[in-house]
Amino acid sequence: MLSRVAIAAAVAVVGNVLLRALAIAIFDIPDAFEHLALRAVIVSTLIGVLAAAAVYGLVAARAADPARTFTRIAVVALVVSLAAPLSVTGDEGADAAAIGTLMLMHVLTAAVVIGVFTRR
Hints:
This protein is mainly α and 120 residues long. Helices cover 78% and strands 0% of the residues.
C-alpha cells in the first residue's frame, strides 16, 4: 500500500502543479490569491492523498468490497470538499477562474487517488 500512496502522491502533486501553472498562464490569476501558491498546492494535495490513504486503509480492513466502498466514500468526500474553494470567494484574486482551478484540483486528486488505490 505504501507504494500506491507514493504513486498517488506523486501523480496528484505533479498534476496539480501543472494544472496550477496552466491556469495561471491562461487566466492570469494574480499572485495575491494565496490558495494557488505553489507551496499551498503541494502541501494541500499531499494532505488530501494521505487522508485518503488512511481512509482506504480502514476500509480495506473492514469492507467486503474495499474498492467499491472506498470509491463511494471518496466521491462523497469530493462533493463535500468542493465547498472549501467556494469558501474563499471573498479573498483577493478569487475570481471564477481561480475558484474553478481549485475545484478542478480537488477532482484531479480524487480521480488519481481512486484510480491508484482501487486498481487491482
